[in-house]
Write a structure and sequence with these properties.
The structure is a single chain. The chain is α+β, with helices and mostly antiparallel strands and about 140 residues long. The chain is built from one helix and seven strands, in the order H-E-E-E-E-E-E-E. It has a domain of about 100 residues: Sandwich (Immunoglobulin-like). Strands 4-3-6-7 form a four-stranded antiparallel sheet, with no helix packed on it. The protein starts with a helix and ends with a strand.
């Protein structure tokens, strides 16, 4: 009789863990937030880290709202009038936050080279949040 109770408890524990494990996936879907009337960069853009072969660009904006799936986009190059390379990074907006921090990694850079860049954000469908930055610059270390 004690072994049957143990088996029943074990079966119940396995069944309960399956239900509990599936709940977090459902709770990670965030609802769309009303689109902001005006999206502004409130901090940056700036270089968070620069190595000889890569850099990370960071900036903060008010929460753009709309689709919860967005992309931080950096257009860059070695000529300030020809930003012909693009890097982007996905981000999920938190509708409870009034701001959003974007971070985008630029790969394949050359050491001791000056790069120019500007940033923007887009919804997952590619629609711009219309918050382009001025062109900035940085130089990768040797």
């Amino acid at each position: 009789m004690p072994i049957q109770r143990l088996v029943i408890k074990l079966v119940m524990a396995v069944a309960a863990s399956g239900v509990l494990r599936s709940v977090p996936a459902a709770t990670q879907v965030s609802a769309a937030k009303e689109k902001a009337a005006l999206v502004r960069i409130t901090q940056g853009p700036e270089i968070e880290r620069a190595d000889p072969e890569f850099a990370i660009v960071r900036w903060t904006s008010n929460n753009p709202g709309g689709s919860p799936e967005h992309y931080g986009v950096v257009r860059y190059g070695t000529d300030p009038t020809k930003l012909d390379q693009t890097a982007k990074s996905p981000i999920r907006l938190n509708p409870a936050h009034s701001y959003t921090v974007f971070r985008v990694r630029l790969d394949g850079l050359k050491p001791a080279t000056t790069y120019y860049y500007k940033v923007e954000a887009t919804e997952a469908n590619g629609k711009s949040d219309r918050m382009p930055s001025p062109v900035r610059q940085f130089t990768t270390p040797r």
